[in-house]
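Researcher: Go.
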Amino acid sequence: MKLLTFQTDGGLRLGVVTARGVLDGGAAADFYRTGADGLSDLSAHIERALNDSTTPFLDEATLQLAPPVPAPGKIICVGLNYRRHAIETGAAIPTTPILFSKFNNALAAPGEVVPIPRTAEQTDYEAELVVVIGRRAKYVSEADALDHVLGYCNGNDVSARDLQLRTSQWLLGKTPDKFMPIGPYLMTADEAGDPANLRVRGWLNGEPRQDSNTADMIFSVAQVISYASQYMTLEPGDIITTGTPEGVILGMKDKVWLKPGDEYIVEIGNLGRLVNRMAADS
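Model: Structure:
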């Protein structure tokens, strides 16, 4: 299934993208609390709708999209998780996953403007595959880890490098407002393809900057889920953003940081295109 979340006067709604248009799938929050256990009911709802000529479908172009997962309980991030990215930044190859967090204030919708904080001078982009948890995971094995995934979406782990590297803790440069755009779709795991073999691309103002594959990950999606679940319980609706490949500004000899008006596009596998523009913070 290809899912999105859209805004209405009554709140955030889950949308299912079909050949006839977008089908209203109910309250988005209810679906993500249920996670993968809600897919069978959603599938039945889709089948009934497609077989009923009177069912209304929505025009996606008219919808105001929200982040596909609008209120994750946790936003877990993985640092330095691509070999060539670690090399380009001069960092040692990690021997265990480097985990850090963002907060929900960092979430941004596709097409939403990302404000550059007044205190940041070195803002960077990071195209990343985002994993959405579908079933509670605690002490899961690597072999069973992917059974706990609801689906995947594009992400841009926007980073203020000067703030990130001010101390050994990266949080300050990672979680300013709107610094985690995701979307536009969540593709369920059965249709997203192999998370260990997805092309990851990013364009700055139309110029190709990142072009890699999740095969270059140091720790696979399954390894990251299993590792994190040894230390915290992962719940339906939690998201894990799994690291960025080479091509970021931090790894360049001549660094021209993001500025107001710049646009970054992320495209991973068949997950659609995530487009966001930078702006000066008001």
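Model: The longest strand covers residues 11-18.
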